[in-house]
Amino acid sequence: MSNSLLKGKKGIIFGALDPNSIAWKVAVRAHEEGASFTLTNAPVALRMGAINQLAEACNAKVIGADATSNADLENLFRESMNELGGKIDFVLHSIGMSPNVRKGKSYTDLDYDFFHKTIDISAMSLHRVLQSAMKVDAINEWGSVVALTYIAAQRVFPDYNDMADAKSMLESIARSYGYHYGKARKVRVNTISQSPTRTTAGQGVKGFDSFFNYADAISPLGNAPAEACADYCITLFSDLTRHVTMQNLFHDGGFSYTGVSREVMEKFDS
Ligand SMILES: NC(=O)c1ccc[n+]([C@@H]2O[C@H](COP(=O)([O-])OP(=O)(O)OC[C@H]3O[C@@H](n4cnc5c(N)ncnc54)[C@H](O)[C@@H]3O)[C@@H](O)[C@H]2O)c1
User: Which of 168, 193, 237, 253 has the fewest CB atoms below 10 angstroms from its CB?
Assistant: First the structure.
């Protein structure tokens, strides 16, 4: 269904790895809503090739960029403006990776080189994206930048590991840069805190199924699916949310404000 919410808007979408990726669903919805955009991912992810199917379906160019490289990011913004014929209106940052999680290191036995990488890829990259965009003046006034996060930034989920610290930092960068970019160019910056979702990054976390099912049983609306997250991103890219900035917005079926549900209480009835 299209309401032409993004008609005439131009964007950059980071992080579509495969059809399960949240970014993939956002790209499909953005295309339906009339946007034109470029797709980007780390060169290693591009080699897997799936993104080309998405690019074809959305009539989008793929431009490789490692989100930890300033040079790659500046090039991405310049090339995207060339390709799209002008400045950008929206950016989706849908990037996360922890080598500690990948290698099964526990939170009390972290490898600090890995920890640096987690922070660089999953949090500092948002700062780099925003700073690179500002440097080449790539985003139009009232443009919108959205990054995806998880409630482990506020509450402890033991196996979310160093990604929890990265998400806290990501949310903080969205607030801080949201202030500066808002003042300078009226650009808004927000994070969406999404329910557990079955994707490559999500399922990499130990015990994913347990906390997926737990969150589903606690949330009055159940876990929010990736498609609904994509819809929410579209509203934030649209002109209907022009004065929303520097926020962490929960998109979680009510999980964040629910103490306990009857379904979960019944499991503890003695
Ligand atoms: N899946 C969940 O349960 C869940 C819940 C809340 C938030 N999120 C967040 O949503 C975002 C998207 O993740 P997803 O669940 O769609 O998984 P995904 O694995 O499909 O996406 C993660 C993306 O990050 C990209 N990436 C990794 N290193 C990179 C680098 N150096 N440069 C550029 N890109 C890089 C990967 O190639 C991949 O496309 C992440 O920030 C994730 O933390 C996911």
Answer: 168
Nearest-CA residue for ligand 1 atom 44 is 202
Alpha carbon distance 246, 10 (integer Å): 21
110-159 per-position pLDDT tens digit: 999 999 999 999 999 999 999 999 999 999 999 999 999 999 999 999 89
CA of 204 to the centre of ligand 1 (A): 10
Dump pLDDT digits (tens) for 165-201.
999 999 999 999 999 999 999 999 999 999 999 998 8
Is ligand 1 within 6 A of the CB of residue 118?
no
Report how far ligand 1's centroid is from the alpha carbon of 149 (Å): 9
Please give the number of the atom of ligand 1 that sits closest to the Cα of 95.
Answer: 24
Instruction: Select the CATH number that applies to the domain covering 10-267 from these four: 3.40.50.720, 3.40.930.10, 2.60.120.10, 3.40.50.1860.
Output: 3.40.50.720
Distances (CA, A) of 141 to 3, 6, 88, 137, 184: 22, 15, 9, 10, 9
197 lines ligand 1 (CB under 6 A): yes
Ligand 1 pocket, residue 22 CB under 6 Å: yes
- 92 touches ligand 1 (CB under 6 Å): no
Q: Give the domain ranges of the chain.
A: 10-267
CA of 258 relative to ligand 1 center, distance in Å: 26
